[in-house]
Amino acid sequence: MEKLLKLLETDARLSLEELAAMTGKTPADVAQRMDDYKAMHIINGYKAIVDWERAGIAHVQAIIELRVSPRRDCGFDEIAQSLAELPEVDSVMLMSGGYDLALVVSGKSFQDIALFVARRLAPIDGVLSTATHFVLRTYKRDGVPFGTESGDERECLV
């Protein structure tokens, strides 16, 4: 049911009936499959992609590169999990290349994020270095373009 996952990823507000029509399944089959996906952590949540700038609400994001010292029996997992629990942290990703972890963090101002890095992130045991990159403008996020009017692109199988 890869098609169901793609449809939900594009628009999680589609009704069971719409999803059933688009996948050729019954609404009950779709509901059961969605419940199964949630139980298996294939689907981990539903959210709106908000253009905070257009909404006129103070919101700053930054991408922070972290070099960390992996812990003895758990590698990067333990430190990544502890970082994921911080409320300012939106995403934590293990990376290849010049740094180990990438964080996406949010705050109301550049200063909020700078203070978060200085007071809460840098002092964590195992954090060797940080590099903060502030997001100045978002043009596209999670496949959704910002600043453009988009029409209804849902497809329906008849």
Topology at a glance:
Layout: H1 2-10, H2 16-23, H3 27-39, H4 52-55, E1 60-68, H5 77-84, E2 89-94, E3 101-107, H6 110-121, E4 127-134, E5 140-141, E6 144-145
Antiparallel strand pairs: 1-3, 1-4, 2-3, 5-6
Helix pairs in contact: 2-3
Structure in words:
The chain is an alpha+beta fold and 158 residues long. The chain contains six helices and six strands, in the order ααααβαββαβββ. Strand 2 and strand 3 form a beta hairpin. Helix 2 packs across helix 3.
TL;DR of this structure?
This protein is of the alpha+beta class and 158 residues long. The protein is built from 6 helices and 6 strands, in the order H-H-H-H-E-H-E-E-H-E-E-E. It folds into 2 domains: 38 residues; 90 residues, 2-Layer Sandwich (Alpha-Beta Plaits), CATH 3.30.70.
- CATH topological fold name of the largest domain: Alpha-Beta Plaits
Largest sheet: 4 strands, antiparallel
Amount of helix = 25-40%
Number of domains: 2
The gross shape turns out to be: globular
CATH class of the largest domain: Alpha Beta
What is the alpha-carbon Rg in Å? Answer: 19 Å
Distance between the termini: 18 Å
CATH superfamily of the largest domain: Lrp/AsnC effector binding domain/regulation of amino acid metabolism (RAM) domain
The helix-strand sequence is HHHHEHEEHEEE
